[in-house]
Amino acid sequence: MNTMPDRLSDTLQALADPTRRAILARLAMGRATVAELAAPFAMSGPAISKHLKVLERAGLIERGREAQWRPCRLKAAPLREVADWLDTYRRFWEASFDRLDTYLEDLQTATREAKNVRTKNKRRTGGE
Question: Which GO molecular function annotations are given, in alphabetical order (predicted)?
Fold first, then answer.
């Protein structure tokens, strides 16, 4: 078992919670104080602080110190790592969809050809 820290796992674990994703969405618009980040949620200050600590440990946010307040800001580098990892699977699905498109086009062509053959046979035999 690997005991080394795994940044991708830390990032995905941090992103697994909808509250943390909402906090990141807010920080994508710019820096915010803990109070500003907590405002939309019906939870205690310590609960928000726990969420912020998870985001900070994952490297997704950074907390500064300005006078009496500690503004938070988004650090997007770990999100790039997730996007790069997911990109491998995007290429897999695109290739799968391309194969499906080819199959469906072949199926439609075969169906049209079969219909044309039936139409020609009916004309030749005078049938319906």
Answer: DNA-binding transcription factor activity
